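Task card 7
Instruction: Convert sequence to structure tokens.
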Amino acid sequence: MAFLEFNNVTIKGLSACFPETINENLPSETFSSRDEATPFIGSTGVERRRLADKNTTASDLCYEAAEKIISDLNWERDSIECLILVTQTADYILPASSCILQERLGLPEECYTMDISLGCSGWVYGLSVIAGLMSGGGIKRGLLLAGETALKPSSPRDKSTWPLFGDAGTATAVVYDPGSCGMKFHFGTDGDGYEAIIIPDGGFRNPFTESSLEYEEVESGISRNRLQPILNGMDVFAFGIAKAPQSINKLLDRHELNKEEIDYYIFHQANKFMNETIRKKLKLPSDKVPYSLKDYGNTSSASIPITMVTELKKQLQQDKVVKQIGCGFGVGLSWATVYFETKNLVISDIVEI
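Output:
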């Protein structure tokens, strides 16, 4: 059973950075008409997303988010001993982008750095890594960066992916906090479904060739090459509505948590129809399940902290304990759920570059 629990750690602050460019789904060149775009927006909840330019990477967005939260928390850079980066759009095949960010942010050389190549479940996995490192008190302050430029490898001629995903970077400040509630986790993986969300070529299994660039028209409105993501919507939907509720219920049962006492359930922002199905299966009131899909789309590993920053800022900054469950699910296929509490959370103003 993939349960973990770490005491003496808590989230201190959150920040998010977005590209300035807004890409609207209506009007959009991806759809043939307004009549085609409107049902997509209705089912996914995505009206627009942010689009990074060709020179801006996920690490750039995370860097700006990290700079902002470091400043707002008034942290000395020498006091930050850990940096975890979650992304599947890294700067290079090697080296790890977290190493580059350590230098860019002016963090000490004796800083634990790591890249985690996970998508939709990545923020929860990353939180478990940083919590595990810090729970014993050896590390007092750390940054969890989660970001993606998911539109860079996507095909503008693919209506199943291009209008859904958005680019963003986030920073989560985590501290050693003796006596705090800590964090409780549940994890799962089903590698049998790895082809449900995949970029077929460009890795070492299927290296790049000239044919990798050849576009194939899969069906009307879906054309892509083998360096661009394939999303099998039906398989992903069936997976998400099954595993996310199971994972949340298992975590609640394991720790005898009262479902009604949880203030907010923050889901990975997959799409609104899927997430609403999960919400209804769990019998959760709509005011406990916030969405950031309308303006930012599916931002992969960044979607949970983005939803906290954009939709819950006022609530999380209050001087009271807020009980939350975060659940990420998707590419892998992978899923993860975390229970955590916050109080007086520092949430930075949104950064745009």
